[in-house]
Design brief:
With 206 residues, this protein is of the alpha/beta class. It has 6 helices and 7 strands. The two termini are 15 Å apart.
């Protein structure tokens, strides 16, 4: 049985990892204990892998003896040169794009993304979700794995599931957005699910 402690308090990510655990017979995924009391490390690397490795190393040095999993993930839009990339979570605020106090961070990011794509036609809105997962133990990175999901960005959000850019991320093979699919389907198709399966394969081969 493999036990992984996830260094994330993001409820959407924890739901995704929970769905992953349900799909694997020899896997237990638990939130890192007392994560809310641990000062977070800076996420200032230029790549998803750099941030994922730094977080996994940092948190595993505080949870000795256990394997700690950390991820960095985000959206890459071709027409924007790969933006928002590693800045996906803070895309709108980094740009000074502010709305009223009742707008959530996810909504704000989606609104800013739509404003950046306002003159881009549908056939040029290709995008992908990218996730890099890093597993570390006792302050040393064991391995990393990557997963992607290809799609396109809609002009109007659809669906009320998921989080982040999911309501705008269209999956052509399903005819649905990432916010319109169930967690089991999302685990099989999503960047995070694919990265986790690749990571587990690497761990089992070691």
């Amino acid at each position: 049985m493999i036990t992984l402690y996830v260094a994330s308090s993001n409820p959407g990510k924890l739901r995704d990892f929970g769905a992953a655990a349900a799909a694997e017979h020899d896997l237990t995924i638990l939130p890192l204990p007392n994560l809310e009391a641990i000062p977070p490390p800076a996420e200032d690397k230029a790549t998803f892998e750099g941030n994922a490795r730094a977080k996994a190393i940092y948190y595993s040095s505080l949870q000795l003896g256990d394997i700690v999993l950390a991820d960095d993930s985000g959206l890459e839009v071709d027409a924007l040169g790969g933006e928002p990339g590693v800045r996906s979570t803070r895309y709108a605020t980094d740009a000074g794009f502010l709305k009223d106090q009742f707008t959530s961070t996810d909504q704000l990011n989606n609104l800013y993304l739509l404003s950046r794509l306002s003159d881009v036609p549908p056939n040029r809105r290709g995008a992908r979700y990218r996730c890099v997962l890093a597993a570390a133990r006792d302050g040393a990175c064991l391995l990393t794995a990557e997963g992607t999901a290809e799609g396109k960005i809609l002009s109007v959000p659809r669906g009320d599931g998921g989080f982040g850019y999911d309501p705008l991320f269209w999956l052509p093979e399903l005819g649905k957005t990432m916010a319109e699919i169930d967690l089991t389907t999302k685990h099989h198709l999503s960047h995070r699910g694919r990265a986790l399966r690749a990571l587990l394969l690497g761990m089992r081969c070691c």
